[in-house]
Write a structure and sequence with these properties.
Oligomer: heterodimer
Strand content of chain A: 25-35%
Shape of chain A: globular
Largest interface: A-B, 27 and 36 residues
Number of strands of chain B: 12
Structural class of chain B: alpha/beta
CATH architecture of one domain in chain B: Up-down Bundle
CATH superfamily of one domain in chain B: Butyryl-CoA Dehydrogenase, subunit A, domain 3
Number of strands of chain A: 13
Mean pLDDT of chain A: 90
Number of helices of chain B: 22
Strand order of the largest sheet of chain A: 11-10-9-12-8-1-6-7-13
CATH class of chain A: Alpha Beta
Strand content of chain B: 5-15%
Low-confidence stretches of chain B: 1-7
Largest sheet of chain A: 9 strands, mixed
CATH topology of one domain in chain B: Butyryl-CoA Dehydrogenase, subunit A, domain 3
Number of helices of chain A: 6
Number of domains of chain A: 1
Shape of chain B: globular
Distance between the termini of chain A: 49 Å
CATH architecture of chain A: 3-Layer(aba) Sandwich
Helix content of chain A: 25-40%
Helix content of chain B: 40-55%
Mean pLDDT of chain B: 93
CATH topology of chain A: Rossmann fold
Amino acid sequence: MAGSLQIVVCGGIVPNPLQTLEPTAGPQGPALKNEAMLPAVLDPWAWHALFEAANLAKQAPGSKITLVCMAPKAKLQQVMMTIAQKTVFELQPIDGPASGFVESADVAGELAEVIKGINGLDMQKLLVFGGWESASRGAGTTMQILGEMLGITDQFQGVDEIRLKDDGSFDVLERIEGGKHQVSRCAGAPAVLGWATGNLPEPPNNPQAGMANMRGIMPALQKARPAKPGQDGVKFLDVSLPSQRRETRVVKDTPAEEIARELAEWITG
Amino acid sequence: MAATAQQEGQAALRTLPLDDVRQIMWRYADRFDLQMLVQSVRAVARGPVARIVANGARNTHEWTTEKNSLLKVFDESGITSAFMEPEEGGYIEGPKNLALALIAFELAWVDAGAATSSLAGNLGLSPIHECGTPEQRAEYMTRCIPPAPGEDREPCRAAFALTEPIPYVGVDTGVLAGKVRVDQWEEGAEPILHVEKRGRFITGMDFANIVTAAVDSDDERIKGSCLVILEEDDPGTFDRGSATLKMVHQLSSTRDPVFNLKIPASRIVGGYTVKDGKIVPNMNHSEVIESVFRRTRVTVGLMTAAKLLSAIEPVIRYQRQRFRGSASDKPDSPRYQLGIQMKEDALHRLVDVWATGEAASSLGFEAARIFDVFDPIEREKEKLFKEQGIEGRRAILKAYKQAEKGALELIALEAMPAEKRDSQRYEELSNDLLTRFMVLESVANVYCPACKLWNTGHGAEIMREAVSLMGGYGITEDCPGFLFHKWMDAQLEATYEGPEAVQRRQLSVTMLSPVFLAQFRVWVGEMRRLSAQRPGTGACALATAMELWLWTVEHLRTAKDANGQALYNSSRQGVTFPLADALCWLLAARSLIMDTLELETKGPENPNLAEGLDGLTQFYQDLCHTFSGDAVGEVGRICAALVHGYNRHPEWSKETCASCYHDGELDDLEGIIPGMDASVPGIDVLGDDDSHPLKAGPCVRFPGLHRYMRLRARMEGCLTGSRLAKDRAAKAVAQVTIPEALDYPA
């Protein structure tokens, strides 16, 4: 059986994907219209990373999960009402923006500072998890920069699976083109894993576990360190939603063979 | 408030009200256990429940594997164990009325049958929970707790068997055909009872392992009625019976079971005492039922409230998208953007649905909170009575009567400004258990039936309106939000756990409690004071309507009809029932105003609401004003019909025409009293030949009704501004941002 691990999951929050998003110009730069009023969820890729962390922690008894999250703390508190029911973890909140308009290097800097400050941090047991990209920005660079800042050079992106071995080494399946995975073997912690969707289902909610978590989460939220990353960094000249692409052709009485031929042609380019 | 009714400028309602808003309005912003419960239940409702409804699970009466799978989901998500005490394996400390109300609300947002299915287990256990012996509670509550992760066992599930086949079904829960008799009773041993019971409309019977059944004695060695606990392995017949062919709530299991079982006497809920060779149950079935139903009915009321609020988003989306896709409507055109919302009527009717849903929710959650406060006090009171040896109906009523004076005094003191009241006396009464019990019980006894009656009855009518706002789409399976199912389900909610007539009957008694009426008078003052600071809420109009209702109640209690018959008595339901209906409107409007006030007060403490709070409070204020206007209209209509409707209209006769004028007389009087002519209402003018105008008789006079007439006139004037508020609310509905799609399948 593998020895215990320290798994740090990094993740921001994003508006619930069903919401109508409209970029607007706010006093501190670009923002989303009604952002504070919209329901939020943990960034979907970080969400998967958290489930994977919980699964891994079960395989390595004595492991501990820490969720490091930068977001407005009042909003984060609402999100925790769901997240805290999924698995046992300790929250390290940073009271900062979550709009996706902060540069990834600035975000990584804030996260690195918190991770370095974790009580009893043991680099030889540290696995840093997060999303390989984010639903709010999708730059796909935050985890890589964070790893560099922490001095962790074993990094894996687009991860769908980790297989832990008894000696502490592990195999990692990273997404590559064509629906295939690249399998790498890592000697052990420390490592950074930027997760894709993984293979695990969403754990059911468990209010009982959530209440146990909240005993630690609420004091942590109250003491959340305020941060204003990227204040003097990039200036946005303009922001807009990606335009919707919809190429619809209404056809009638087309034989199935013809439709199949067109589809095959389109797929093969 | 952000703006008064007079202001033309309007802060925008930015989004539909989300959890932050609801937590404040329904008072669980500081209850993380409840916030988590809400999220957990919501995931179940909008996930597995919505999926099987969309897959057509409601199209059969039978309890299918698909429906059965929900039970496990309920267990895993904490829904089943929310009812249990922590020592039994639950996780919510203290009273659980608000928690169960929130569960019902969230499940019914998607499907009320699922809500019923989850709550029926609680109903089955409630007799044991409320009235069981400590041993019964320890045994059955623990057995029904779902297995912990890694634990390999099937949880026990309970059903409640009260109603019986025709002729008794639905007639009177006080009449029981189910029987219990002594089967064996050996010296020094536990008696064995023989129970025969046929149930009808029993929820959860497809899977229940234990049943709490109401039975009456069929043996002179057993006194009266009781509830007994039946187990599926008891010797005899435990026949689950045939499925009830109901057209609604198909996600709950309902069957007509037959039981013929032998059980030990220790299964009598609440235990028994042997007196003079007779088994005397410690609690008869009526006492147990009263204790159970006065809590569970609130959650039913909230199921209908949830349906109304759940209809808002799909209706807005339907209205806005109604004309999209037409070649003639370009994306930038108002017709493309707003669709049917360009029309005032569509918006106004949606505002009515929204306001009713909000008022119903406010009323229901207030009732649930009242019971959360009341529950521990009631238990303490029972303990106190036991210690003091107060037993039996007469002794208890005597104790209540003695405590009533203190309760009235406490209410009067509470209504006074703190600096003006006798603080020592106030402190003394506030700390007196029985006094507090009397005050709370008087309110609880009104709020529970009011919520059940009005939310479900009026809610079903307004749900029909919501369906009609979807046009033909509303009655199809494709309709987003399952609105048609919800409309039909509302009809059942108005019926089960005590139909409307039962609630009206209960209200017609409890609303006359002097303690409740004293409290109600204080609320009139409270609404007036509130309206002085927040004129845009309609609180002033509501206060006047409350005064009118009070006046009418007092008047009818002593008035007689044209035949000399007393108007207010238990058999005169044409009088008592409409008055009960009117009270429900008043309470719902008051609850909504109080919740809006809470949002305005506590909202600024929540940073998530900062940017949109002005628009939110303005919108809720407008909903309050709109709804108060409707409530005032209903109360006015009911009171007018009751005050005048039982008097005989005067006919044209010498006596009744004694005060009529003749042609020419008025011309003479005009010289003395300018403006005195035949056009003045209420003046009847006869011809020289005593011929009378073509109408039913001389105009009615109002002796003794001056106060009533003043209140009526004032109340109508108080409606000023209510339609402007509705216009503003409609405008907000047309502008509010909604999500791109519904968050559950349809």
